[in-house]
Specification:
heterodimer, A: mainly alpha, Four Helix Bundle (Hemerythrin (Met), subunit A), elongated, B: mainly alpha, 4 helices
Chain lengths: 199, 122
């Protein structure tokens, strides 16, 4: 009887985790629409440089590629954290999350130093419609990354305090979805903003 | 594909190859002087880059986000398809309309007057 109750409880927890994952997925899809609209704005305003610097003058392939590889690697290590959490390895989960945090922080630092380089070259968001659209699109992605970093920090504290409880693991699964989602958005920023901006 | 070390490594390696491939194509295009010596015309290169990005989108959806695992009614896929549908309408529609607006607004006011008078008769 007790065994059966336990099975029921596990099944109920799994069903709840599924519902939470789906709810979070729907949020991600609405976020995707926000990014889609910002992409549309960028494509429309790309040529409107108002005599200021164009994407060709500003963007560098090596910076964009470094950013992309760093974020892609962090997406991979974040997946490894989920795997460690599923096989109940607490320390390994925390270690991979810490690596993900470091890579995410590196990405954000590189992005902010790129922004400051643009601005000191007189290419701030006030210079032209192209730059307003660029900073809004890439900055919104960077803001999501910053929120993700905060989320990793909270997740590590929760893991240390509570351990791998079902509720902590389910939150971790949602963070992983969020992080992979941000990497997918970045693929399109890398391709359509940076690569197409310098070719 | 079920979440496993294999699925993450496969996804990571494929994404790396696709990213580096796209970057290599662009750097080869730039160093060729983007003239007649280039392998591709600009439009062809844009098409190839978009194709590579879309392949990588699917790689990450399948190997990282495990979209293909979903069983029963595929609500996640449905939500994704709706979002992508809205995005395609907004993005393609914006580019299409705004490019034509630019085309129409290029003329000077005097030329526009002549154009409107000759085309629309007022």
């Amino acid at each position: 009887m007790e065994k059966m109750n336990e099975t029921n409880a596990t099944a109920a927890q799994a069903a709840q985790a599924d519902r939470h994952a789906f709810g979070f997925w729907v949020y991600l899809m609405t976020d995707l629409v926000i990014f889609g609209v910002l992409f549309a704005v960028y494509y429309v305003l790309k040529a409107s440089t108002f005599g200021g610097p164009s994407s060709n003058d500003l963007f560098s392939l090596s910076t964009a590629l470094t950013n992309t590889i760093v974020l892609l690697t962090s997406s991979f290590t974040c997946g490894l954290a989920t795997l460690a959490a599923r096989s109940k390895k607490l320390n390994q989960t925390i270690a991979w999350l810490a690596v993900t945090f470091m890579l995410g922080a590196t990405f954000l630092t590189l992005e902010l130093s790129e922004f400051s380089r643009f601005m000191s070259a007189g290419a701030s968001w006030q210079r032209s419609a192209f730059l307003s659209a660029f900073f809004t699109l890439v900055g919104t992605h960077g803001l999501h990354i910053a929120v993700g970093l905060l989320w990793i920090a909270v997740a590590i504290v929760q893991l240390k305090v509570k351990g791998l409880t079902p509720s902590v693991v389910s939150k971790l699964d949602r963070f992983t979805l969020f992080w992979h989602f941000l990497d997918i958005v970045w693929i399109f920023i890398f391709t359509t903003v940076y690569l197409m901006g310098i070719m | 594909m079920k979440a496993s070390l294999k699925s993450y490594i496969t996804g990571f390696v494929l994404s790396l190859v696709l990213t580096l491939g796209a970057a290599w194509l662009v750097s080869a295009y730039i160093s060729s002087g983007s003239s007649s010596r280039a392998m591709f015309t600009p439009d062809m290169l844009i098409g190839i880059l978009l194709a590579l990005a879309i392949v990588q989108l699917f790689v990450q959806l399948i190997f990282f986000m495990h979209l293909a695992d979903e069983s029963g009614p595929r609500w996640k896929l449905g939500a994704l398809v709706s979002a992508v549908g809205i995005i395609l309408i907004v993005v393609v529609g914006s580019i299409w309309i705004m490019n034509h607006l630019n085309y129409n607004m290029m003329a000077s006011p005097a030329d526009m007057n002549t154009y409107i008078q000759s085309q629309d008769g007022f």
